[in-house]
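Supplementary Note 3. Input sequence used for the single-chain structure prediction.
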Amino acid sequence: MSGSGAFTILHALHNEDADMTTSSDQGFPRWLILLGALTAIGPLSIDMYLPAFPQIERSLGGLPGSVELTLASFFIGLTLGQLFYGPLSDRFGRKKPLYAGLAIYTLASIGAAFAPSIPALIVCRFLQGMGGCAGIIIPSAIVRDRTTARESARAFSLLMLVMGLAPILAPLIGGGLLTHWGWRGIFVVLALYGSLCLVAIRFGLAESHDTRHEPPLRLKTVLGNYGRLLSNKAFLGYALGGGLAMSGMFAYIAGSPFVLIDLYGIPPQNFGWFFGANAFGLIASSQINARLLKKLPATTLLRRALWVPAITGIALATLAFSGLISLSVFVVGFFCFVASLGCIIPNATASALATHGQQAGTAAALASATQFFCATLAGALVGLLHDGTGRPLAAIMAVCGIGAWLCHRLLTRHHEAHHAGHPAEAPKPANATAQ
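The predicted structure, written as discrete structure tokens, is reproduced below.
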């Protein structure tokens, strides 16, 4: 675990701001710093052990490509688990499901560290995903509990710092741990990180959701809540708009190593610079978005930002299939597509949750699960459609970009027309209670 990661968690202990806003005048609220540490669980769990794939395969005697299944099982657990934690956090509050999820994550990380075989590691990674997703989905609900619609978009923009930095730092941290402690040491550190997060939320995070008037949790009620969300066109428009845009980034993550290294001969040791530049673009645009939200509503910024991946995807696909594509075009296209997500994801998430405050956990779970499902599908399609050229990647990014724009345009236009000039910016009552 990095020193900055440990500092982030310990900095939150016994230091919760009473003020629930996220204005830049007050800097980073300490509770938001802690949520950032929880959000980092996903990227750290995905990226830290990537450099260890060859060593894990040799150590456990796995078949070629078998280690990749441990990554797939983590994503499956991550996607499915969110659908459970959302309703649980609405019924029992935000902290209790966080305790349960982080406990499962920590124990699964210990199990992964001592896994005797690839199948055992696959199971442990699935449980890691099932537990760790609590740290991804519940922070979104907490942000919605404590902020207004516009403030929540700004808070999500700040959390995008973590989502941008973690993929850059995690492989470097994992590589260092691999050198000194081997691949099992990576999972030991992840277990320690989960334990620290448990301690931090115990002493540094107050409950933000009042459950005194919540009805008993029943399967029929949960399914009914999900059904109402799925029938809400505006919610679907925001969730699919953000999800399909994020899918284009996952396609880029899956396909860019082949395009840049194998197709255009970029030295593997230099690939990280290209990857890091795009992550920097994501971070920069998320912070620009946070400033723009002082003047414009999240729905307006989202509508404008969705043009970028659509146009970028069309341009990449057109040039790829016409044979006019080049390395520089791919590099610029990757940067524009990924950077636009710094504005799209925070605003799409905030807009989807804006009208579902009391059921923020359920709404956040469905929105996030939708995003991860679409993203996993896009990443798999890049491999299935591989033909030795950059055309499949360009085509999938185009479909994702156009699909995001269309879903948002077609499903939210009536909602946004109805609320034009009356954004959902009424202050959200703070339900945080003392420990």
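Confidence is low (pLDDT under 50) at residues 1-27, 421-435. The first helix runs from residue 3 to 12.
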